[in-house]
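Our preliminary data section would be incomplete without showing what the modeling component actually yields. Below, a chain of 380 amino acids is followed by its predicted structure, encoded as tokens that our downstream tools consume directly.
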Amino acid sequence: MKDIGSLLDRFQTVASSPRKQLEKYLAAGEKVIGCFPYYVPEELVYAAGMVPFGIWGSNDLPVNAAKEYFPSFYCTIAQLNLEMGLTGKLSGLSGVISPSLCDTLRPLTQNFRVAVPQIPLIFLAHPQNRRPEFGVRFTLSQYRSVKEKLEEIAGHSVTEEKLREAIRVYNKSRAARRAFVELAGAHPEAVSAVRRSAVLKAAWFMRKDEHTALLEELNHALAGLPPSGQEGLRVLTSGIILDNPNLLSLFDENGLIICADDVAHESRSFRVDVPEHEDPMTALALQFAAQDHDPLLYDPELKKRPAYVADLARRSGADGVVVLMMQFCDPEEMEYPSLLQALNDPGIPNVKIGFDQQMRDFGQAATSLQAFADLLRARK
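Predicted structure:
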């Protein structure tokens, strides 16, 4: 357990101080590319010899300067990404890649380009009709454009060999993170909800080969533990992001064990591998085509994702589902009635926690999670 604790501490240090991690890479002479949500093909950055660096808002920064560009009812992740650019928190980046999958991310791309001209912005448009052949061709054309702009920043071409190597590195990272999610759920005595988040969050701020090497060491240590004797209530979390330690500590205080997740910042980002036996650029486009079960992605069946979440809760052995509802996220809010029905029809207990990254008082969330924990205990 001592070795596990020291490994978890290393992830915690990175997750709690992303700016220090960024400065470490900059001091080493690395070029770093910021990657906004969602579905940025980080392999292109890695293959270009640069460091991909996730930008998913902040739990510590107030929104002030960004208010001149966004109305108050915009998702705080978008507001805070712009705020970080305006206040110098992203200084040192050689560029950012900004997708445009929702009505908030689209204006973010243009506002950032105008408000933070010192950091080159690479615009990325994903198609909603991503699976048909024409959708794959469009994604491929967009990825080629991103690749060309990255080559300009890097000062050299991205070879096919380097791209194949990057795909292998990233697939290995995805496998290690999937394994960690299962091991963390099986060993809550060793990995609290706060620590679990730190391990997954640190992956956004580290080169994937570095993160994977450390994570495989942790996974090996966790796999060697005897079966956990800690009793608790197993829950599935679903939403965009759950990385605030104050909110996560409420899970630990109420004995809620996160056994699996459907969180965009966590498992949704590493569910799907890139095919390794295709032309590498085409393989990246095919990986996006294979993405699914996300409110931001077009679903012609409308209710397929809610059914997926309910099935994931059953398969993971969850006693209930905690839905983290980002304030002012139209896609998630519009889907919620269907998700609620998919969970209620088979009798899966669930609770919705509304939040955003500007929240400092979690009293209402504490009450909701305590009541939910009491409900789950009563059903045992």
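Residues 1 and 190 are 7 Å apart (CA to CA). The first helix runs from residue 2 to 16. Preliminary results of this kind motivate Aim 1 of the renewal.
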